[in-house]
Amino acid sequence: MKKKSERLQVIIDLHARQEQDALLCLGRIQQKLLEQETQLQNLQNYRLEYQAKVEAKQREGMNVSQLLEFRAFSDKLEKAIDSQQLLVSAQEQELQGAQKHWEESHQRTKSLKRVSELARIEEVKAENRIEQLEQDARAARSRRKDGMGNA
Predict the structure, then answer these.
(1) Which phi and psi angles does 101 have, rounded to 5°?
(2) Inside any domain, residue 138
(3) 109: how many CB neighbours lie within 10 A of its CB?
(4) Distance between CA atoms of 95 and 117, rounded to whole angstroms?
(5) Measured between alpha carbons, how far apart are the two ends of the chain, in Å?
(6) CA distance to 7, 38, 70, per residue, from 49 (Å)
(7) Residue 34's domain is classified under what CATH number?
(8) Helical segments of the chain, H only
């Protein structure tokens, strides 16, 4: 029959794999978030450049149709930025969930390792007690033999 610590090791290995999977998932989500934030920053930078371009054109003078085109494109750009901000927010929430999942998984694995270590300590103590009892029994038999032989 397997010792308790050996049986626990199978469970620990399973949870360690789950923890590793959760960590990999967390990393992928962090990477996606970084990409989404970069895309948002690019859109915001483009908006600033575009606004500067519109202002320069306005100083030079532009007709109404050009102004309407600039405004229509500017509105589309604002919608794209708003949409990207929603994506970033959703990605941040997903990251928080993945972070929580990994932390729970990590804590579970850590707790199981501690239980296994305590089981190992108890097993060693039990083995030491058995070994001590066997030594005491051998010593007692040896003393009895010596006592009988001397009489």
Answers:
(1) -60, -45
(2) no
(3) 21
(4) 32
(5) 46
(6) 64, 16, 13
(7) 1.10.287.1700
(8) 4-60, 64-150
Long-range contacts of 56-61 (CB under 8 A, 24+ apart): none
Coil/strand/helix, residue 3 = coil
Q: Which domain holds residue 29?
A: 4-117
* Residue 129 belongs to a domain: no
Q: For residue 151, what pLDDT band results from cuts at 50, 70 and 90?
A: very low
Q: Which residues of 1-32 are buried (b: 16+ CB within 10 A; e: fewer)?
A: eeeebeebbeebeebbebbeebeeebeebeee
- Enter the tokens of residue 142: 């040896």
Neighbours of 108 (CB within 10 A): 16
Per the domain annotation, does 128 fall within a domain? Answer: no
% of the chain residues with pLDDT over 90? 73
Please check the confidence at residue 37 and state whether its pLDDT lies above 90: yes
Tally of structural domains, the chain: 1
